[in-house]
Amino acid sequence: MVCLNCALFKNLFNSSISLRTFLLRSTELSMARVLSLFRSQPFLHLVARRKPTFCKMSMDTRAREVFAAAVEAVQPDTVVCQSIERKEDSVVIDGRTFTLKHNLHLVGFGKAVLGMAAEAERIVGDHLVKGVISVPHGIQQTLQQHGKDHLLLKENSRIKVIEGAKHNLPDTDAQKAAEEIKHLASELTEKDLLLVLISGGGSALLPAPIPPITLQEKLDVTRRLAGAGATIQELNTIRRALSLLKGGGLAHHAHPAQVVALILSDVIGDPIDIIASGPTVMSQVWPEEVLSILERYKLLNLLPTSVKEVLDKPNSRWKEHKEESDTSGHVLNAVIGSNGVALKRAGLCARELGFLPVVLSPSVCGDVQSVSRLYGLLARFACSREEPPPDIATEVLKLGPEVGVESWDLCRTMQVLEKGRTEGWGATCLLAGGEPTVELTGKGRGGRNQELAMRVGLELRSLGLPPKGPVFLSGGTDGQDGPTEAAGAITDGGLYDEAKAQGLDIDNFLINNDSYTFFSRLSGGQRLLVPGLTCTNVMDVHMLLIPAIPIIIR
Ligand SMILES: Nc1ncnc2c1ncn2[C@@H]1O[C@H](COP(=O)(O)OP(=O)(O)OP(=O)(O)O)[C@@H](O)[C@H]1O
Ligand SMILES: O=C(O)[C@H](O)CO
């Protein structure tokens, strides 16, 4: 094993080597050695210096408040309001100024787009000529019923709302919306400004299959892919190859108008070419990539002739207007809300509620079992009274990257946890986000957040801590975890015994993926997190609250 000398580590902080170089070299090290080096460094600027205030609220209540703050930060109207600065007859977006001369047009597609459009119209409606948005079936009625009138368009709005994509699947209503959006974009001139509002669910709400592919044929291909377990990256790569508007098609049709896209991200890493299949992000179709995805999921032989025909002529939609499509300088894509934004606000709220906050990562993915194990290890690390045995840190650093968390983030987080523990800085709130997966083996009713919460509850139990130990919350920011009414659940090390005392066999519920039934029956559903319709979606939020009282694990 190559030994890292301290000079290399110190150099990192003098910026003489890049973080990437450091991590590459550090993979050759003993994990415990890396961690011990991190401990010896002055990281305190990353950590709050003031001692947190004492808070009388229960951990459960505080967890719910922090989750609510995360969701609040990414409300569709909030993110739009924060990203458009109106200055008389111009707007500043992402540092760029655009002149308004009654030349503004608006299109949008996605689950959060109605609220985004309502806010955009409030800010720049006086210059708005026309708009069309494609939003989920029934959303206007649902928003009305939930008293969320501020997310609805005003009566005399210039924006036409088309509802479609029932059950998140493209349908003829969504296709009609896509046609109207394409038409609106195609009529624009170089004097026009097109504001494009994009959020998760946008792919299903903007179906425009390349002829001769029919909507049903395209739906069949994407459905099969999704059912076979394709990732969103794989799925949307195929969608882009089969669509007139995805993969930059919309921006292409809008040329030569200036296009400004405001994007609320629901994908890990906020890749603008993947979110809603990137209608404003010019992207090439690589036949090898498309074919290898279809082959991976054994779909090559099941493709209809029309799809084969289109795939045989990749990028043909661009060739007709080659000159124009090369001119992508007229597009500005800005991510205005994401899991990272939600976690940041959650951290601020946690601080107000007396916690020392630390954000682990917004990119947690992988199987919920591995993710729960990671949180269990971090809780163990945080609650050890003595110098944590190096094997916990080593395990954390081994497991973290498997679930999308970088070594750097793990080391930084463990350093904060250790400070909290050894220097008595009070309670700590570890925050993370992303979108883990559940391998469905049973037929029960549940979701990945509730299942993760159950599994972390079991991990916390295995720490053998006294009551009032760490608390864990997992919740979907869209307010819905799988096909259930809950967004997630809150657990702690007492979950198993509580369930047992009420005659509930937790292992059986887990085997059957029946986490919603479990939490509904347990203690009158008290542990469920039910925020109702949130009108937004930036994936999931995870929270591990570690109490201030020194806890003992030996
Ligand atoms: N019984 C269950 N137990 C655990 N997880 C489940 C269960 N049923 C479905 N799921 C998981 O729920 C997820 C789908 O639910 P949900 O609609 O909340 O996902 P989503 O990715 O947030 O959707 P969207 O992209 O529309 O926001 C899938 O990952 C699926 O594996
Ligand atoms: O619409 C989609 O493609 C997904 O929600 C990812 O953004």
UniProtKB/TrEMBL annotation:
Catalytic activity, EC: 2.7.1.31
UniProt domain MOFRL-associated: residue ranges: 63-311
Pfam families linked: DUF4147 (PF13660), MOFRL (PF05161)
First-level EC class: transferase
InterPro entries to which the protein is assigned, alphabetical: GK-like_C_sf, GK_N_sf, MOFRL, MOFRL_assoc_dom, MOFRL_protein
Every MOFRL domain range: 429-540
Catalytic activity annotation: (R)-glycerate + ATP = (2R)-3-phosphoglycerate + ADP + H(+)
UniProt KW keywords: ATP-binding, Kinase, Nucleotide-binding, Transferase
Homology family: Belongs to the glycerate kinase type-2 family.
Record protein name field: Glycerate kinase
Organism: Neolamprologus brichardi (Fairy cichlid)
